[in-house]
Amino acid sequence: DVVWNELQNLYEARFKQSEIITRAIYDTEGNLLRTTRYYSQENLPINILTKIKKKYAGKTVFGVTELSTEDEVSYHVTLQDETTWYIIKADNYGNIELTQKYKKA
Fold first, then answer.
1. Is the pLDDT confidence value at 5 over 90?
2. pLDDT tens per residue, range 46-72
3. What SS3 class is residue 53?
4. CB neighbours (10 Å) of residue 32?
5. Helix, strand, or coil here: 50?
6. Sign for the pseudo-dihedral over CA of 89, 90, 91, 97
7. 79 close to 56: Cβ distance less than 8 angstroms
8. SS3 category, 10
9. Which of 29, 45, 86, 90 is surrounded by the fewest CB atoms within 10 Å?
10. How far, CA to CA in Å, does 92 sit from each of 46, 55, 79, 95?
11. What's the rounded Cα separation, in Å, for the pair 25 and 30?
12. 23-31 — which CB contacts under 8 Å span 24+ positions?
């Protein structure tokens, strides 16, 4: 079940496949510009998951947002513990960095 939306000079397709929610953006010529996928840690590449679990031991993965363009794929992983949210950015090579950190209310 694909839901299409027309945006300003763009088209968006939204769908769910195997528990992965996907947004795909196309130009007016039908060329895929970017995709955004939302999923759990099970779909994260193993090299990235392993590094995150090692560096942030004791934190649990809340969710993953994968951003893909023609040139790049990046992963924005939300981790949590009892008091804090952590946003980690990773690339295909397994490089990870903490980009944001928030105290829970």
1. yes
2. 999 999 999 999 999 999 999 999 999
3. helix
4. 13
5. helix
6. positive
7. yes
8. strand
9. 29
10. 10, 17, 19, 7
11. 9
12. none
Q: Of 103, 100, 92, 98, nearest to 45 (Cα)?
A: 92
Nearest CA among 46, 32, 35 for reference residue 90: 46
Residue identified by tokens 């949590």 is 80
Give the residue among 7, 15, 49 at the shortest CA–CA distance from 35.
Answer: 15
Instruction: Compute the radius of gyration of the chain from its Cα atoms.
Output: 16
- Relative to beta strand 20-27, strand 96-103 is unpaired
Handedness of CA 4, 7, 10, 15 (dihedral sign): negative
Identify the bridge partners of residue 25 per DSSP, sorted by sequence position: 12, 34
